[in-house]
Amino acid sequence: MKFTTALKAVATAGAMALMMSTAASAVTLQLHNGGDPGTLDPHKASGDWENRVIGDYIEGLLTENPSAEAIPGQAESWDISEDGTVYTFHLRDGIQWSDGTPVTAGDFVFAFQRLFNPATAADYAYLQFPIKNAEQINSGEITDLNELGVKAIDDKTLEITLNASTPFFLEALTHYTAYPVPRHLVEELGDDWTKVENIVGNGPYLVKEWLPGSYVRSEKNPDYYDAENVQIDEVYYHVLEDQAAALNRYRAGEFDILTDFPADQYQWLQDNMPGQAHVTPFLGIYYYVMNQEEGQVLSDIRIREALSTTVVRDVIGPDILGTGELPAYGWVPPGTANYVENAYHPEWADVPYEERVEKAIGLMTEAGYGPDNPLTLQLRYNTNDNHQRIAVAIAAMWEPLGVKVELFNAETAVHYDALRAGDFQVGRAGWLLDYNDPSNTLDLLKTGVSQDGTMNWGNNYGRYSNAEYDALMTQASTELDLEARGELLAQAEKIAMDEFAAIPIYWYVSKDVVSPKISGFEENPKNIFRTRWLSKSE
Amino acid sequence: MLAYAFRRVLSAIPIALIAVTACFFILRLAPGGPFDGERALPPTVLANLRAHYNLDQPLINQYFIYIWRLLHGDLGPSMVIDGFNVSQLIAIGFPFTLTMALTAFVIATAIGMLAGMVAAVYQNKWPDYVLVLAVMIGVLIPNFLMAALLQLWFGVYLRWFPAGGWVNGSWWHLVLPVTVLAWPHAGRISRLMRGSMIEVLGTNYVRTARSKGLGERLVLARHAIKPALLPVVSYLGPGLSYLLTGSLAVEQIFGLPGIGKYFVTAALNRDYGVVLGTTILYMFIILALNLIVDLVYAWLDPKVRYR
């Protein structure tokens, strides 16, 4: 009796040891991803949370290297026509979906048609609008999907025709909107193809499990063309929006990488976990919009100047936020590709603060405001501690001008609804670049387009409008020479900033914490680090 | 009793319909919609999305479409979480929330009643003070703070329990979240129990029981506990629904897959389908719990007679 018990114990211990040894050989990355991904469908995705998962299981024509620069993905090479409008891609040999079906040029054609098909209702379809007829198909103007400028020459060759030469097009192809989808599966299952039990991929990882509210789990794809160099066997993309809780779980050793942390913990991290927190300039701008519609107070450029020049940007990153975001005086983030060397920097930025205030008071007096007739402005922001701290600080900076600021906060949906409707005076906004090109931020200040008698201002909430600016933007969009194009865009930036089209405040930074166990992580301005480049040591 | 239960169930139908209707329209009164994010969508895309979810139709039509689908057991799609429809989200999240809430409920009720009785019996002596202090901590510290504190102490410093996350079937991962949920619940129950027990112990029939020479233990077990339970029982229904609906902070901080999170984030995102779906679910839970409590009440208290 005792003997059998002992035998059982030994057997159990042996089995456990065996299990542990196999467990130890599988390398699992525990990645803190943020919120729940809204979808696993690349055509419906709209943010980082989806991007991290989707970009690991599907690969586009081009993909990102460790520093997030475009490199060959499913296409191993391409030719570009002399006028820059026709791209011919040559797909790799042997690429396949995880169910064994080959990835063909037809999958890409099908994917682009699906992206622009109005029935798909893809949020970010407009990112690929440089493609010929894309916009017309998406708006329903053209109903024949075959009119799209994406054609399969044969199974291995794909031809994409653009409206005009677009210098950032290859870069835009790394975006998930340009990913292929498995045509055979989507035709059979429709939108259900991304359900975990059906899903297939062509990327380095394959989605195996999705527990909403908790995690998505992917495993290494053995059939991926570069599988031999992929080090990590399994990835958990954890859902946790509470940043302080995420940091606690990192400290408990449960997470290997945090993709965000509370700004006020930066000092603590530097003191206690030196080298693990990465604060990196990120392609994005945090700014205030001023409503310049006719009849609005802020249509007066003097008041806009007074407000913008008296915001002390240097204290916001280091002191108010604590993560050292760099002050923004222009509209195009530093590090943006295809741009001029020396960034826009207004003269007033170097004038001592006291003099700026003095001049601003003068401008306000000219505009008819002063101590006897104070200007009352409403400043709207979406509810968030950091937005509030900045708003309070800026309200205090405007006080010497005799400006009385009424703070008003609302949840995100309500806030942006009000901005779009023009129902505000000063409003907080932010923009993260979709692709690394100056036009992506400069487009924000283009005059809206008239549609059915009403103006559609898009993301130009402040309704800034300058014909010369618009003309430069149009000219730049057809300029083939990158340097000349950069110059044109820089001229446009100067016009808008000299007219105080908005109040740039700071350039965003990305905030990651990376365990010393992880190697292969490279800071980059897009904050994209694909799992295939990472490795983990115990 | 059966007839009473049947009547109560019938009367719940109009209540449910009114609640769904009110929720449907009030939700639409709130400014903003499910597609108002940080970025303006091009009008064509927005129109496509709105058409996809029937949002381009007159509100009253949308309402009847919703009710029609609801009668067929279809809670509709989520407009924000694309991979799942509302029924699926509930099917994944609710069993988890229910497990967590019921575990917390059983533990908290047992501990709370026991603590309340002990405190009442030792009124104004040290066990009473210790228990009152423990209760106060649980009731006064808001659960998001409690969750963060327990996570830090037991997950990060001591490493006794996981600091968060969920591995299927692992009760180990539930210890901290259940503690956070159970503590204030146990606190409220023990206060109710203590108060009503003290009152019962002062009544004439307890005095009679004592004077006829019954031992203190028998007095408590046979005469005091049952009547003292009444206020506690009437709290159990709302208490359980509170545990079921109040799991938001716990789910957020420990990264758990329950539905409490959907209820709140969906409201902020204007994810109409999910808000309505979770509201309907909660409504049924609350209606059902109230019914059960009323029935238990009838059983406990001979003064309450239902025909």
UniProtKB/TrEMBL annotation, chain A:
What is a GO molecular function of this protein?
Answer: peptide transmembrane transporter activity
Domain Solute-binding protein family: from-to ranges: 70-448
Q: Which CDD domains match?
A: PBP2_OppA
Q: Which domain of life is it from?
A: Bacteria
Which keywords annotate this record?
Answer: Signal, Transport
What GO terms in the biological process aspect are recorded for it?
peptide transport
What Gene Ontology terms describe where this protein resides (cellular component)?
A: ATP-binding cassette (ABC) transporter complex; outer membrane-bounded periplasmic space
Q: Where in the cell is it found?
A: Periplasm
Write down what this protein is called.
Peptide ABC transporter substrate-binding protein
TrEMBL record, chain B:
Where does it sit, as one GO cellular component term?
plasma membrane
Q: Domain ABC transmembrane type-1 spans what residues?
A: 94-293
Where does the record place it? Cell membrane
* Membrane topology, as annotated: Multi-pass membrane protein
Statement: the UniProt record of this protein carries the keyword Membrane: yes
A Gene Ontology biological process term: transmembrane transport
Q: Name one Pfam family in it.
A: BPD_transp_1
Provide this UniProt record's keywords sorted from A to Z: Cell membrane, Membrane, Transmembrane, Transmembrane helix, Transport
Transmembrane segments annotated in the record for this chain: 12-30, 89-122, 129-150, 170-187, 232-254, 274-300
- Listed InterPro entries: MetI-like, MetI-like_sf
The keyword Transmembrane appears for this protein: yes
Where does the source fall among the domains of life?
A: Bacteria
Assigned protein family: Belongs to the binding-protein-dependent transport system permease family.
Return the PANTHER family for the record.
DIPEPTIDE TRANSPORT SYSTEM PERMEASE PROTEIN DPPB-RELATED
Put simply, this protein is called Oligopeptide transporter permease
Organism of origin: Devosia elaeis
